[in-house]
Amino acid sequence: MLFRTDDGVSLHYLDEGQGAPVLLLHGFPLHAESFRPQIDALSKRYRFLVPDHRGFGRSGLAPGQEVTEMSQIARDALALLEHLRIPAAVIGGVSMGGYAAMALLRHDPGRVRGLVLADTRAIEDNAAGKKRREELARATLERGSQVLVDAFLPQQLSASASPALRQQVGEMMAKCPPLGAAAALRGMAARQDGQDILARYGGPALIVVGEKDSLTPVENSSQMFKLMSGAKLVVIPGAGHLSNMEAPEAFNRSLDDFLSGL
After folding, report:
1. How many domains does the chain have?
2. C-alpha–C-alpha distance, residues 92 and 11, integer Å
3. In whole angstroms, what is the distance from residue 48 CA to residue 186 CA?
4. Helix (H) or strand (E) holding 239
5. Domain containing 106 — which CATH number?
6. N or C: which end of the chain has fewer CB within 10 A?
7. In terms of residue numbers, what domain contains 142?
8. pTM for the full model?
9. Parallel, antiparallel, or unpaired for β 205-210 and 10-17?
């Protein structure tokens, strides 16, 4: 399905299932179908709203847009809720989607019935991290999306991930539009530290992290957990950074337990 934002960008989204609405924000450099394991397993009980972020999947990018800030992804998500006339939803995000979920919480906390943060972190990039993102953005624009596969695929999954899953994730990355990827890399580098907004949030929250996540290790999730009075922390044994794809049964149990308790 498609809808158009106030600045004229055509955004694609999935709207599947029935029940309480759950808006999920995907990681970098993937798209909405990265949440297929959750949709297929749980859509009989929950309504999943999953957009392709602008510049990813089947969503467009504004002409000349060089930076996609996490607050922009958050505003797009809120615009989707407005488009569907949904006053509030559980908001969840994996990796970059977690950054956007925290930005949404800062922008309009009244729309958040519950918060799910998976394989992400609240702290902003340091100077070295920002420099690496800019270098990767330039390389992606110059040489194409294979740069993303080479840079990220080895870090997304654990060493024990199946060859089929590794191929699936690699194909998703290879199809990521370079302009969208570069804009998002710059947006992640510019993102605001989220520790303050998590500390102020008093609602229900689920934090999920793969035990073998090397990009946003368990320590990052533990830091977020300590900030949030109403949070639950789940560490998924053996899983890497994309725990929702690599260990879907364990991830889905945790998600279902959380959602059914709201």
Report:
1. 1
2. 18
3. 28
4. none
5. 3.40.50.1820
6. C
7. 2-260
8. 0.97
9. unpaired
